[in-house]
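Hi there, hope your week has been kind to you so far. Would you mind checking whether the tokens look sensible for this chain? I owe you a coffee for this, so here goes:
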Amino acid sequence: MNYKHLYYFWMVARIGGVVRASHRLHITPQTLSGQIKLLEQRFGGALFVREGRHIRLTEAGRIAADYADDIFAKGLELDAAVRESLRATHALSRPPSSSPLRPQSHPVAHPDAAPLMRPLSNDATRTPGFGHLTLVSRRD
């Protein structure tokens, strides 16, 4: 199973529409629909019923969405546990610094993980701590 296809399906199911999910995922609606069709082919049936411009989950789609909820929740737990373990290991193995200035690291969440960390809504607010990192280059 392709987990990216499952993730795309899951996002559409949670958000409730291909166009809105495509905006959140930064891909075209056509690409998103194509990826979901590949997942439906993999399963051998429809996960959504298309009704004009609206979609709703089929029974198989509801089952897949429930499993996807669990899969992606476990993925977040895995990420947090591994990062915490690495931070603890790194803190124990680092010698004390004689410099008063210590470099600070600021973890940046992967943009695809941001939708998993906040409740879905129709507003355009962002979750604190998540966003887009913009690099600016200046030539003198």
Q: What stands out?
A: Confidence is low (pLDDT under 50) at residues 101-110, 117-138.
